[in-house]
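Following up on my earlier thread - several people asked me to post the actual chain instead of describing it. Fair enough. Here it is, all 187 residues.
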Amino acid sequence: MKANDLKRGMVIQMGDQNIVVKQVQVQAPSSRSGNTLYKVRGHDVSSGQKFERSFKGEENVTIIDIARRAVQLLYRDADGCTFMDGESYEQYTLADAALVEELPFLSDGLEGITALITDGVLLGIELPVSVVLEIEDCAPGMKAASSSARTKPATLSTGLVVQVPEYLTPGEKIKVNTETREFMSRA
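Reply from S.P.:
Thanks for posting it. Predicted structure:
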């Protein structure tokens, strides 16, 4: 496949790494004889290591055929996280080391997780764009605080710390963006 056909969500093989494409940015040539460049950002499926590289439009890339299945987090233990396929009820376990970026968002009953599976092996997971988490600890809420006022740090039920508006109190549920790790709204 040519690099100019790459799209978000595809999985390409670069050496011994399987890269999930998160963003493709097109850079037009600055001269008549220049080539259009395709700047690809993503991460390695197994290690989570960030990947960034520019390709010329006619460069060949190897696409990996990966099945995307809806899964649910069953439980966490010493071995890692165990996920269950929603249709076939198959179970897949992934070590915590492979889930370093996703662990702060994983909670029981989280819906919308997509598993990347090839040849019956779970390579990694994709989280939904936003997740709902409960505030465990933060400074007391201020009744007179407006929504555009200052923020304060809040520790969520999974251990993730995000900046939230001053009017929020412990026990409230909020939406958090999984890409930017920022507060979005009350749930």
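The CA atoms of residues 80 and 95 lie 4 Å apart. That should answer part of your original question.
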